[in-house]
Write a structure and sequence with these properties.
The chain has 383 residues and is an alpha+beta fold. 48% of the residues lie in helices and 19% in strands. It has three domains: 5-177, Beta-Lactamase, CATH 3.30.450; 184-302, Beta-Lactamase; 310-378, Orthogonal Bundle (Arc Repressor Mutant, subunit A), CATH 1.10.10. The chain has 18 helices and twelve strands. α1 packs antiparallel against α2 (29-40) and α1 runs parallel beside α8 (154-177). The chain is globular.
C-alpha cells in the first residue's frame, strides 16, 4: 500500500530529527537505524566499517533484524569471503549501491558467502552508501532486504537518498565531538574542549559562542573571519554556501535538506578544511541552541588527505569491475586459481573467466605479470 506524500513528509521530518539527536547521544543510534530500515523498506540497517586490505571490519551500531550469531560469524569468518566488500569501498560517497550492481546474482549464488551466510537468513539484497572513506577502508550505512522484500527498487533508492545526507552529517559530527554517552544539556561545555573549531551561529551567521580552537582560527584570518560579528569564509563560494546552510538551519532539521553536509573551505596557504553543520532548532539539541539563540553549530577541521587506494587506482585505470578486482587481489595475495577460488568461495571456472578478462584489460598474459602490476601501484617509490 502506497504511503501518502503527507505521511512520508511527517515520517521523514521525525526521522531526520532523531538522526541529528544521535549525533550527540550515540545511545540513540539503534532506534534511529531501526526506524531508517522501516522508512526505506528494509529488514535491518546499520553503520559499518570495513578495511578492504585486511578483510576486517566492525559494526558501529545496528538497529536489530539480523541475528547476533550471524553478525559475529560475519566478522569472524565471512567478511573475508564477502564478494561485495571491494564494491562497497569503491562506491561513490553518499550514493546507494545494491548488491546486484556489484556482482551478478548468478555468480553470487555460487559463493560460500551466499550458501553459508546469506541463504540461511533468507536475505535478498544489501544496499549501502559510503559515508566516509580513506585509501583502504570505508564507513558506510547499509540496509538488508529480506526475500519477502525482493531486490532493491527505485523507491528504496529514492528514500535512501532522502536520509543518507543526514546520516552522513550526523556520523561525521559524532566522530568530531566523540561524545560517547553524553547528555545534550552539557553540549556547550564539552564543545569548548574539542580540538575542532566550533562556532554557534544564528540564522544570519552571527557568532554567539566560539571555543578555543575557533578563536585561534579567527585570529589567523586565513580560513575564517568574524566580519561584523558574522562568521565568514575567506573563499567567496564557501562563504555563500555557509550562509545558505545557516538560513536553512533556522527552518529545522529537514529544511537543511541535501545541502551543507560538508562545506569545503580553502585557506590562503592552500590548506584544505571542511565545515560540518548541525541544526540546533529541534529535538534534544534545542536546549543548547536556545541558551545562545543559535540555530546551528559549525565544526571546522582539517580535511583528510584524499589518497586513493591501490584498488581504486587500478580499478579506474583498467576499468575493472569489483569482481575482477577481487579476483586480481586474490591471485596476488593467496596464489593460483584453486587458492583464489577457495578464498573467494567461488568456482574455479568463475575465477578463470575473470582471469581471462583481467589479462585482456591489463595487457598481460601471466599471473606473475599481474603480481608485478599490483606491486608497481603499491610501491611507495611510485609517484
Amino acid at each position: 500500500m502506497q504511503t501518502s506524500p503527507v505521511s512520508e513528509a511527517a515520517q521523514l521530518s521525525s526521522l531526520v530529527g532523531a538522526i541529528y539527536d544521535a549525533a550527540l547521544d550515540p545511545a540513540l543510534w539503534p532506534g534511529v537505524l531501526a526506524e531508517s530500515a522501516r522508512f526505506v523498506g528494509g529488514l535491518s540497517a546499520g553503520l559499518f566499517f570495513v578495511d578492504a586490505n585486511s578483510k576486517s571490519g566492525n559494526i558501529y551500531y545496528d538497529g536489530g533484524g539480523i541475528d547476533p550469531h550471524y553478525q559475529q560469524l560475519y566478522l569472524d569468518t565471512y567478511i573475508k569471503l564477502d564478494p561485495f566488500m571491494t564494491g562497497h569501498v569503491l562506491a561513490e560517497i553518499g550514493e546507494p549501491v545494491a548488491a546486484d550492481e556489484i556482482m551478478p546474482p548468478v555468480e553470487v549464488v555460487e559463493t560460500r558467502f551466499y550458501k553459508e551466510w546469506v541463504r540461511p537468513q533468507q536475505l535478498r539484497d544489501f544496499v549501502t552508501a559510503v559515508l566516509e572513506k580513506s585509501a583502504t577502508s570505508a564507513a558506510f550505512f547499509g540496509v538488508h532486504r529480506h526475500q519477502r522484500h525482493g531486490p532493491a527498487d527505485d523507491e528504496m533508492r529514492r528514500r535512501m537518498r532522502l536520509i543518507i545526507p543526514h546520516i552522513r552529517r550526523a556520523a561525521l559530527i559524532g566522530r568530531v565531538i566523540d561524545l560517547k554517552r553524553t547528555e545534550a544539556a552539557t553540549l556547550v561545555d564539552l564543545l569548548d574542549g574539542i580540538s575542532a573549531g566550533m562556532f554557534l551561529v544564528t540564522a544570519s551567521g552571527r557568532i554567539v559562542h566560539t571555543n578555543a580552537s575557533g578563536h585561534a582560527m579567527l585570529a589567523q584570518r586565513s580560513l575564517l573571519r568574524a566580519d561584523g560579528g558574522r562568521l565568514t569564509a575567506d573563499d567567496a563560494d564557501a562563504d555563500r554556501a555557509l550562509g545558505e546552510v545557516f538560513a536553512m538551519a533556522d527552518g529545522g532539521d529537514a529544511a537543511v535538506g541535501l545541502k551543507g553536509i560538508a562545506v569545503p573551505l580553502t585557506a590562503r596557504d592552500g590548506g584544505r578544511h571542511v565545515a560540518h553543520v548541525l541544526p540546533l532548532t529541534s529535538g534534544a539539541r534545542r536546549r543548547a541552541g536556545a541558551a545562545y539563540a543559535a540555530v546551528a553549530a559549525v565544526f571546522v577541521q582539517k580535511a583528510p588527505l584524499d589518497t586513493p587506494s591501490p584498488h581504486e587506482v587500478i580499478g579506474k585505470h583498467y576499468r575493472l569491475t569489483p569482481t575482477e578486482l577481487r579476483v586480481l587481489f586474490a591471485i596476488v595475495q593467496v596464489g593460483g586459481v584453486p587458492e583464489a577460488a577457495e578464498a573467494l568461495g567461488i568456482a574455479e571456472s568463475t575465477v578463470k573467466t575473470h582471469l581471462r578478462r583481467l589479462f585482456d584489460k591489463t595487457g598481460t598474459d601471466r599471473q606473475a605479470d599481474l603480481v608485478k602490476l599490483v606491486a608497481s601501484y603499491t610501491s611507495p617509490l611510485v609517484g
